[in-house]
Amino acid sequence: MKSIHTLAAIAAGLSLSLTASAQEQATTASSTGSHRPIPPSDQMFRKSIWRQVDLREKQNKPMFSEGKEITRVILEAVKRGELQAYKNDSLTSTFNSEEVTGNASFADQKEELSADERAAGLTRNDDWGAPAPRAGARASTVRRPRLDANGRQMRDRRGQVIMETVAVAPPPPPAPALNMYRYKDLYEMEIKEDMIFDKKRSRMYHDIKSITLMVPSTLPSNVSGIEKSIGTFKYSDLVRVFRANPENAIWFNPENDAQHKNLADAFELWLFNSYITKVSNAGDSRLDDIYGGAQQGILAAQQTAADLIEYEYNLWSF
Fold first, then answer.
1. Which of 248, 261, 264 lies closest to 75 in space, CA to CA?
2. Do the domain assignments include residue 68?
3. Main-chain dihedrals φ then ψ at residue 187, nearest 5 degrees
4. Is residue 241 part of a domain?
5. 255: exposed, middle or buried (C-beta count within 10 Å: 0-12, 13-18, 19+)?
6. Which one of 138, 161, 215, 217 has the minimum C-beta count within 10 Å?
7. pLDDT tens digits for 227-272?
8. Which of 170, 155, 179, 41 is nearest to 105 (CA)?
9. Distance in angstroms (rounded) separating the CA atoms of residues 139 and 189
10. The domain containing residue 98 runs over which residues?
11. Does the predicted model carry a pTM greater than 0.90?
12. Does the residue 37 lie in any domain?
C-alpha cells in the first residue's frame, strides 16, 4: 500500500513538472515569434542571422505575383486588424494600424520655385496670375474684450466692456497629402532567424523569428534616400494570417496553376533567395559596417553563408 502511494505521488509530481514546462515553452514561443520553437535544452548550436530578400529577383517573384503580393497580404491584414505590427525585431514595442499606414506612405512633394518666380513675389507654384502681396499689408485683426490678470472682462467707469483690437495669426499651411506606396514598390524584406542545430533530431533548423517590410532606398518618392522600416511582424502571426487567407497568400507556381503553395509552406520549404546582412556579434554591427563597405559586405555575406554550411558539415566529421 505504501509503495502505491509513493508511485502516485511521483506520477503527480511528474505531471505538474510537465505542465509547468509546457506553459513555460508556450510563453517563450509567443514572445519570440517562432512557429515551431526548439527547447533550449535541445539546442547544441544557435546563431542569429539577418537576411535581406529582394522580391524582384526571379526566385522570389512567385511570392510577389500581380495582385497577390506578400506585401499586399500583410498590409491588408494589418488594416483589417488581423495582424499586429512591431517597431523592430525585438518584438516589444508595437505600431497601430494608422502608424503602419503612415510608414508605408509618402508626402506629395511640390516643385521648388525658380529664382524668377521668387523675384516676382510668388510663394507657391500655383500663384501665376495672382497679385503679389503688397508690402506693409496689415495682418487680419479681430475685436475682442480685454481681460485682466484673472481672465475676467475689464470694464470702464460706465460699466461698458473694454474692447481691444488684436492681430490674428494666419492659419497653418495644410499638411501635405499622404499617398501609400504601391505594393509593387515595397520589394524589400528583412528576415531574422535563429540557425539552430537540434541535438535530439541531429539536424540544422532555420527558425524564423520575424519578417520586416522595408521602404527601399532607391524609390524616387523616398526622398530620405535610406531604407525605412514599415513594421516588423512575428513569424508565428504571419503563418496564422497566411493559413487564414489561402486564396491570396499564395506562392505562385508558374509551371502548374493547380500546384500553387501557401506562403507559409513557401517559407517552410525555403522557396526564396536571400543574402546575409548581419550575424549576431558583440557590436550588433552589419557585415558592410564590419568590413568597410557595401561591396565588401556582399563578399562577406557569401563567405558567411559558406562558413555556416561548412560548420554544419563538420558536425558529422569524426
1. 248
2. yes
3. -105, 10
4. yes
5. exposed
6. 138
7. 899 999 999 999 999 999 999 999 999 999 999 999 999 999 999 9
8. 179
9. 51
10. 31-106+187-314
11. no
12. yes
